[in-house]
Amino acid sequence: MTADPLRFTALMADAVETCVRHVESGGIPFVGLLVADDGWVSDPGVNLVHETGDPTAHAEIVALRQAVRTRGRSALRGATLLATGEPCALCYRVAAAHGIAAVHFAVDRDTAAAWGFDYRAGYEADATDRQPLAAAARHLAVDRGLAPFIRYLDLHRHDFTSHSSPTTT
């Protein structure tokens, strides 16, 4: 199966809506999912860092873990990772190490930073942008792409005036 941009756009739009619901249930605005070459789509992974205390439970990694449990490790090779927010350096590294072929994101790192989630320092620390997967990653614009970030800010506006901004993807 070849990559279908219209299908990716529809899947990303669904991921954004899942992300809004995750934010409304107390999560942060990051969701990841995988699309395999044979058309299989993973369940969305949501960021569970705060809920679990696991610093590696980023949305993309949660999606990868679920995919491995469902279909085995070989399911990752050649798959496309869709993410509501551009993956952080850790997520790019894990995705590349497990054979993810492409990454598409709804909100880029600079926009995420402007909305209170600034994880850009990690890119320089491990030269993420020189990795082929990160260098080839693409923005996939969808309606309501910013909705999870807007909703998060609406729900946590008081946190931004009295505490430091969140930074975990």
Automatic annotation (TrEMBL):
InterPro entries per the UniProt record, alphabetical: CMP_dCMP_dom (IPR002125), Cytidine_deaminase-like (IPR016193)
Domain of life: Bacteria
Pfam families: dCMP_cyt_deam_1
Domain CMP/dCMP-type deaminase: 1-126
SUPFAM superfamilies reported for this sequence: Cytidine deaminase-like
The name this protein goes by in its record: tRNA-specific adenosine deaminase
Record lineage: Bacteria, Bacillati, Actinomycetota, Actinomycetes, Kitasatosporales
